[in-house]
C-alpha cells in the first residue's frame, strides 16, 4: 500500500556521525519542528508529550521528537558518563568528553536557528515569551542534567542557554524538558486547531486569563456572571479584560507591575 503523502516536507538526508542514525524509527522531515533531547533516560520520552494534542500532532508529524541516550557516548566498556567533582564535593558530574560528542552528533543534523538548552535550576526562568521564540525556531536541542550537573566547559564551549522551570530542584531535567516542549509545541501552526486559543490564554499578553464558565447556567447556587449570558460581545470583552487585570494584580503583582511599566513606556 502506498504510504500517505506528508504535507510537511520530505525526509532530510544528510551525513551522520553514526550510520545507524539512517535506520532511526522517526527520520527527520524538512520544515518540521524538531525537539532533540539528550538524556540518560530516553525511555521517559515521549511521556506526557505522547498524549492529547501534542501526541496527535506528533503522530501526524506536525513536529518530531528524538530522545538520545547519553550512555551511547559513554567511556570504557561500562559506558561511564560521569566522574567526581574537581576540587572535591558530593555527587557526580557529567563529563565534557561524553556530553560534547553527543551534542555535536545532534547538532550535525540541525538546520536554521536551533538553540541548545540545558535544564538547570540556575538558568533563566522559562516563560511564554521563550516558548513563542522556540516555536519560531527550526528546532531545539535540550540537555537533561543529572547528579550535580554537567561540566561547565560544555556550557561555555557550545554557548548553551541554561533554562529553569522555577526556583526548585528536581532529580533531573527530563520533566522540565517535557514541560517546555509541551508549551512550545502547542504554539506551532495547526496543533491547537483554533489560533484564538493561544491569544486569550494566560501569559499570552503578559497577564493572567479571565475566569471561564460553561453549562449549567447555575450550579450549587452559583450562577454564571450575567454579562456572559447577555450576548453583548463588547461588554463581554470589557468584562474579561477587567477580570484579567484584577486577577493579575491580585495573584501576580510582578506581572502586573511589568504590565504597567510597558504601558508607561
Any idea how many domains? 2
Strand content: 15-25%
Q: Which value, in Å, is the CA radius of gyration?
A: 22 Å
Helix/strand class:
alpha/beta
Shape, principal axes of CA atoms: elongated
In whole angstroms, the N-to-C terminal distance is 61 Å
- The fold-level CATH name of the largest domain is Alpha/beta knot
Following the backbone from N to C, one meets helices and strands in this order, namely EHEEEHEHEHEHHEEHH
Q: Number of DSSP helices?
A: 8
Helices and strands, with pairings:
Blueprint: E1 33-39, H1 52-59, E2 63-69, E3 82-83, E4 93-94, H2 96-107, E5 116-125, H3 128-135, E6 139-144, H4 152-157, E7 161-164, H5 174-185, H6 197-200, E8 218-219, E9 222-223, H7 233-251, H8 253-264
Parallel strand pairs: 1-2, 1-6, 5-6, 5-7
Antiparallel strand pairs: 3-4, 8-9
Top keywords for this entry?
2 domains; disordered N terminus; single chain; 265 residues; two-stranded antiparallel sheet; Alpha/beta knot; alpha/beta; 8 helices; Trp Operon Repressor, Chain A
Amino acid at each position: 500500500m502506498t504510504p500517505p503523502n506528508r504535507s510537511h516536507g520530505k525526509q532530510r538526508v544528510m551525513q551522520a556521525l553514526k550510520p545507524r542514525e539512517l535506520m532511526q524509527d522517526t527520520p527527520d522531515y524538512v520544515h518540521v519542528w524538531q525537539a532533540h533531547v539528550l538524556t540518560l533516560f530516553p525511555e521517559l520520552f515521549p511521556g506526557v508529550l505522547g498524549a492529547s494534542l501534542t501526541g496527535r500532532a506528533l503522530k501526524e508529524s506536525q513536529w518530531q521528537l528524538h530522545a538520545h541516550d547519553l550512555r551511547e557516548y559513554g567511556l570504557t566498556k561500562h559506558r561511564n558518563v560521569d566522574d567526581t567533582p574537581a576540587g572535591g564535593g558530593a555527587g557526580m558530574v557529567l563529563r565534557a568528553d561524553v556530553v560534547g560528542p553527543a551534542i555535536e552528533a545532534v547538532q550535525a543534523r540541525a538546520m536554521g536557528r536551533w538553540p541548545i538548552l540545558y535544564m538547570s535550576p540556575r538558568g533563566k526562568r522559562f516563560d511564554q515569551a521563550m516558548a513563542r521564540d522556540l516555536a519560531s525556531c527550526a528546532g531545539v536541542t535540550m540537555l537533561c542534567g543529572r547528579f550535580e550537573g554537567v561540566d561547565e566547559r560544555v556550557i561555555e564551549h557550545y554557548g548553551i542557554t541554561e533554562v529553569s522551570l522555577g526556583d526548585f530542584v528536581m532529580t533531573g531535567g527530563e520533566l522540565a524538558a517535557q514541560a517546555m516542549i509541551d508549551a512550545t509545541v502547542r504554539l506551532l501552526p495547526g496543533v491547537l486547531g483554533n489560533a484564538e486559543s493561544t491569544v486569550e490564554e494566560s501569559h499570552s499578553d503578559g497577564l493572567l486569563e479571565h475566569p471561564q464558565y460553561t453549562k449549567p447556567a447555575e450550579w450549587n447556587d452559583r450562577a454564571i456572571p450575567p454579562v456572559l449570558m447577555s450576548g453583548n460581545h463588547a461588554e463581554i470583552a470589557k468584562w474579561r479584560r477587567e477580570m484579567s487585570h484584577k486577577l493579575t494584580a491580585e495573584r501576580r503583582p510582578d506581572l502586573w507591575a511589568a504590565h504597567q511599566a510597558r504601558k508607561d513606556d
